[in-house]
Amino acid sequence: MHPYMPISVAGDLVTTKEKIDAGFIALSLEKNYMAVPYIEEAKTLKYLCRRGTKPEDLLGVKDIRVDLSTAGDDFIDELVYRYLLTKGDALGGKARNLAGVLGEKKFLRSLLSVFNLSGNDYQWKDDDTDAWLARPQDDTGIEKRINGLSWSKNRSKRLLIMNITVPVVKKNVDLSILDGTVDDLKKGKHSIIHNIDAYVALGELKGGIDPAGADEHWKTANSAVERIRKSFSKKKKKPQTFFIGAAIENSMASEIFKQLRNGSLNNAANLTNDEQLASICEWILNL
């Protein structure tokens, strides 16, 4: 086990009730924030619809593009409700991935904090443009857009690439850390991701906070990590592996701790535990 890892017993990994409650509140606030554009659009739609006394009157309103053919006498309210129902489905799709997105943001914010406090320079890949950018003077909010990091430490060059299909594993891996630079991320087969010798560590990140889904998240992550081990082992390679999870119950905490003790898992952290998260981020920086 990592000598500075703040985990001495399996119970240290368990998510407390207070952290679960805080996680649900954070999810709820984020969902409310995501819903604001749809609600404001619905209000605007209702205002625009008041220009007509019957559905046919709205067909000439250029500022709205909606289906009015089946609207009844209460067509304005019916139209707004139908709009909200449609947008509610879209919001539901986004919300299902929200816990994972928030988990990535929290992990990245902690990692950036470790970089900043250690005075370590870095480059980051903008998910919106796919461009690699220099470390900004003000990094507020960039964790929302990062899908890759590059840094140097102790003469080592490191790349953190998020959510890529690792060729040797033939599956998506949440966090892949490689020995290389941005210039090594070439197109096609020439990219560093095809170089099995370049992989330093690979990890799974599960941001779901609901205890009801904790075991399932761990089973998925554990299977993924085991697949990583076997895939690299067939090539006689053994990169380090790690796990970061938000909802960790007693039984899975015991399994994780057992793997840490026997060395099959090199590091782990509870995403809701600031000390553990900072520790694993420091470990990643120094790999």
Residue ranges: pLDDT <50 for 5 or more in a row?
A: none
The tally of beta strands, per DSSP, is 8
Radius of gyration: 23 Å
Question: Considering DSSP H and I runs of 4 or more, what fraction of the residues is helical?
Answer: 40-55%
Q: Helical stretch count?
A: 6
Q: Averaged pLDDT, please? A: 84
Structural account:
This protein has 287 residues and is α+β, with helices and mostly antiparallel strands. The chain is 42% helix and 19% strand. It is built from 6 helices and 8 strands, in the order H-H-H-E-E-E-E-E-E-H-E-H-E-H. It has helices at residues 17-49, 75-96, 98-118, 214-233, 250-262, 274-285; strands spanning 122-126, 132-134, 146-153, 156-166, 171-179, 199-206, 240-245, 267-270. Helix 3 packs across helix 6 (274-285). It is globular and about 70 Å long.
How would the blueprint of this fold be written?
Elements: H1 17-49, H2 75-96, H3 98-118, E1 122-126, E2 132-134, E3 146-153, E4 156-166, E5 171-179, E6 199-206, H4 214-233, E7 240-245, H5 250-262, E8 267-270, H6 274-285
Parallel strand pairs: 6-7, 7-8
Antiparallel strand pairs: 1-2, 1-3, 3-4, 4-5, 5-6
Helix pairs in contact: 1-2, 3-6
Keywords:
287 residues, alpha+beta, 8-stranded mixed sheet, 6 helices
Précis, in short:
The protein is an alpha+beta fold and 287 residues long. Helices cover 42% and strands 19% of the residues.
